[in-house]
Amino acid sequence: MDQAAGVMKKCTLCVDRIYNENLPEVDRVPSCVRTCPSGARHFGDLGDENSEVSKLVLARGGIDLMPELGTKPINKYLPPRPKDVAPKFDILAPYLEPVAKTQKGFLGWLDKALEKI
How many whole angstroms separate alpha carbon 53 and alpha carbon 66? Predict the structure, then answer.
């Protein structure tokens, strides 16, 4: 971060944070990973097959971006996580079934009134 200009000049993966033994282990990741509100960024050692990030890449099928360029990227991109799907139900179903015709109280009165129209 260029403090004078207020912008990032070149990303160093926050190497000063990663190797800073004065920081707790959870903070020894790049700032973009630590502060990502959606948890979309992950950081770790892809060379260690037992690391959390290696397990994540294996489980989700991480891929290289444009490997055909021959740049041998060290980043992996993960496909989108499956979305949570709410069960489908018809909110009006209880009122559309024949049971609705035998309702008591206001709904029963309403059914009778509407049948007369």
Answer: 20
Write the CB contacts of 48 (distance below 8 Å, at least 6 apart in sequence). 54
3-state secondary structure 56-85: HHHHHCCECCCHHHCCCCCCCECCCCCCCC
The parent domain of residue 67 ranges over: 46-76
Domain tally for the chain? Answer: 3
Q: Is the dihedral of CA 34, 35, 37, 41 positive or negative?
A: negative
pTM: 0.58
Decide which of 37 and 3 is more confident.
37
Does one domain contain both 38 and 1? yes
